[in-house]
Design a protein that fits this description.
Elements lengths: L2 E10 L5 E10 L22 E9 L3 E3 L3 H13 L15
């Protein structure tokens, strides 16, 4: 079962200023599986998928479409840094 989270990323613009982009994304819990021991006790790893649902500029709140390369880079970062963004939709927080 996936859960919804939020995270703020910062883009550097051509003029050297920064732009904050908030993303809403889903993440499924990662289970490393069990790959040792008796065969009947083993099972493969599963979960750990990240998917950005939508993004918007802050503080304006304007929804934007992310370029594919930026979306992939940010999804990879979220996957590699799960402990830095552990706030779900039920607590209203963001990283």
């Amino acid at each position: 079962m996936s859960k919804t989270y939020f995270h703020d990323f910062h883009r550097e613009l051509d003029d050297g200023s920064e732009q904050t982009v908030t993303v809403e994304y889903t993440a499924t819990p990662y289970d490393p599986g069990c790959t040792y021991g008796l065969p009947e006790d083993c099972y493969p790893p599963e979960g750990g998928e990240i998917g950005i649902i939508e993004a918007w500029l802050e503080p304006q709140g304007t929804k934007i479409d992310l370029p594919d390369d930026e979306r992939e880079r940010w999804e990879q970062w979220l996957m590699e840094n799960p402990d830095l963004c552990a706030h779900g939709d039920d607590d209203g927080g963001d990283c």
